[in-house]
Amino acid sequence: MKQLKPIDSHFFYFESPNQPMMIGSLWLCDSSTAPGGRPRYRDILQYIGDRLNLTSYFRRRLEQSPLNLDDPYWLDDENFDLEYHIRHVGLPQPGDWRQLCIFTARTMSRSVDMERPPWEIYIIEGVNNVEGLPEDSFAVLIRFHHAYVDGKASFELTTALWEDSPTHEYGRRDRVEVAERRPTRLEMWARTTPQLMSQPWRSLRAGMTFARKSAELAIRLRKDSRPAQHKTPKTIFNVPVTPHRSYGSVSFKMPELKRMRSLVPGASLNDVLVAIIAGGMRRYLKLHNQLPAESLVSMCPVSLRPEEVKGDVGNLLSAMYIAIGTDLDDPVDRLAAVHRHTQWNIPLAREVLFDLTNSAGEMLPSYMRAMGVHLQNRASMTGRTPLFNTITTNVPGISGMQPKYFAGAKVCSISPMVPVYDGVAVTHGMLGIYDSMNIGILADRKVVPDIDVYVDCMKASYREYLESTEYSELTRAHMEKAKKAQMARLTGTDMDSPTLLLGRKSG
Question: One biological process GO term for this chain (predicted)?
Answer without folding.
Answer: glycerol metabolic process
